[in-house]
Hints:
Blueprint: H1 2-17, E1 27-41, E2 52-54, E3 60-71, E4 82-89, E5 98-105, H2 106-117, H3 123-133, E6 137-138, E7 142-153, E8 158-174, E9 180-189, E10 195-204, E11 208-222, E12 224-233, E13 239-240, E14 247-264, E15 269-279, E16 287-304, E17 310-321, E18 324-332, E19 341-348, E20 353-355, E21 366-375, E22 382-385, E23 389-407, E24 411-420, E25 431-434, E26 438-445, E27 451-462, E28 467-470, E29 480-482, E30 498-504, H4 511-516, E31 521-530, E32 544-547, E33 552-561, E34 563-576, E35 587-598, E36 603-611, E37 617-620, E38 626-628, E39 644-652, H5 654-662, E40 665-673, E41 681-682, E42 689-702
Antiparallel strand pairs: 1-42, 2-3, 3-33, 4-23, 5-14, 6-13, 7-12, 8-11, 8-14, 9-10, 9-12, 14-22, 15-21, 16-19, 16-20, 16-23, 17-18, 17-20, 17-21, 23-32, 24-31, 25-34, 26-30, 26-33, 27-28, 27-29, 27-31, 34-40, 34-41, 35-39, 35-42, 36-37, 36-38, 36-40
Amino acid sequence: MIKNLLLYFIILFLFLASCKKESIHPEWDVNLLSPIAKTKLTLNQIVADSLLQVNSDSSISLVYQTPLADIVLDTIAQLPDTSITYTAKLSTLNIAPINIVDSVSLGDIAEMDKELNGPYGGLYEALTTASITGNPTTISAIPPMSFDSIVVDAGNYFQTISVQQAYVDIKIDNKLPIALTNIIFQLKNQGNGLVLLTDSFDAIAPNTWATKTEFLTNVTLENLMWATVTLSSPGSGTPVTLVLSQSATTTITVYDIVIDSAIARFPSQEIINYNNNAVINTTNNLQISEAWAKSGQISVEVFNTIEETMHYQFQVPRAKLNNVPLTLSGTIPAATGGNASHTTVSQDLTGYKIDFSGINQDTINSLYYILTGSIDSSGNFVHITMNDSIYINCSLSNILPDYARGFFGNRHIKQDSTVSFSVLNDLQIDQLSFNDVKVSLSVENQIGVQAQANITELTSINTNHNSSVTLTGTALSSPFNILKPNDPHSLNIDVIPTINNFTLNSTNSNINQLISNLPDKFRYKVALDLNQGITPPPPGSGTDFIYYGDKVSSKLNIEVPLSFIAGNLVLRDTVATDFANTDISNVNGGSIILKSENMYPIDASVKIYFLNEQNVIYDSLSIVSVYIQAATININTQKVELPKLSKNIIPVTKDKLNNLFLAKNLIIEARFNTQPANTHVKIYSDYYIYFKIIGDFSYRVKK
Length: 703
């Protein structure tokens, strides 16, 4: 039996040994854990660090400031353009006094007697004999004699003058040894025979003189005139020594001539000497006492219709640069061919300190100026008429003050606009209700003026949800005062603004609802009343001031404690995938483990999205969101002390894994909803939610 069994095994062994050998490759499946990504989500993902304020209890507030209205210089102390005009008419031109001298001698009287009575036995013989012998003689009475061919030649002065008015002095200086009586003087034009004046003297004693003054009006003087002198004498009564050259001299002086027209030689003279105040026409009770020009221009334009060269000067004594008064001067040529000559000179006002207190420094808005002008004498005859003039126009334009002082009036200024508000518009949330919003309107005043401010409208606008909330409450009816800063009296020292705050809270307004609207814009209307209730002070005593670039700036300050009711508040982060150490070629399935640490006392639902190289979402890890439980609030501290740890396993198919392995980045998105719905949740600075994504992959291993 044993032998048979042994033989059987030998035969079986030989049979098996004679068979062909084939290769064998064993396979088996193993599960390996592979980290994929991790992230920590905080409010920094949606709100900039600079806007988060950590309070003393470690709670968080959003703090934000947005500019509203700026009221700048040109709306406060605008200096209007101003013109100063002056016309020098012909009446201001002077013709030099006209002096004409003529004499009647004893020889002339003797010759007249010779013509009337012959050469013998009369006055002629007596006078000539006494003159030749030198012996004293008694001169007999002289009957009236007329000397009517006395030529008066004014050709050195004029060719013709139409006189509005003029004064004429007639002086007779009697150097004869006899008295003259019943003297009649007459002056008339040679051309038209017009008698210009007639006057008489009763008596002029020997070696004395007498003067008469006549007033000429509306006459025309020719350059050649006749003078007629009629005289008589009682004689000497006693013997006198005489010579025939002794005479009575008549001097005619025409002066203070006011002319309608003339062809005359005009002497060099000052024809303009004028000073006055140029009044700056302001509005709203604006009083300017002083201004320092940042820019501006003054121009002097001159027209001259007179045929003589003129020199002019325009000076503002109290507008100074480096302590030198503002002066513009020039020369304008004579008019030619009936055409006026013209010139313009300009001066940049930059840097000038201008006093607007007037001539006597006792007023406001008044620029004291001096205007002078003179002509040169060419020696030629110049034709002028009443239409001739020198016209001067001075214009001050585009004056922009670097500094202005005075009283800026009782002015009502309104400003309205819409401004962007970026602090909340990055929040991805359906609804939000804040618990205790603190909002203030801050007004920084660099302008030296007292004022009152009013908020007439403040509306929060959410353009994403097309919703708006308008401020209501007593805040709208409560103006607040804006204080005046101190004047440094220097362009090199900045004005330190006064800070004026007005608080909006739940007591005086619906500010909580306004901010809970999650605005991305604010529409506002504010009103500013300058010097409200202040009576304009006496001229020159105003202390309001402004420097260029300074302004009244209003800002909206918002502090939002993060104690809120939230619906679908989204925190998200984009993270890079890490498959560097993962052999994805033999992965045939598995699951994704989502580990989380949630310090927020709010439940969250999480979704993970796959991004390609262009950061475009092409898939998600699962259709259904992963639920993350809220952390527990400590009943004693009313804060979360420990995070809520969660582990969620998400089964995935091989196709889903293949899509995951193609992802360059992942979006991890957490949506929060406070529960109960009407309970405010307070957020602290150490709150976070942490995610770690791990791949639990099934690998097929071959030997």
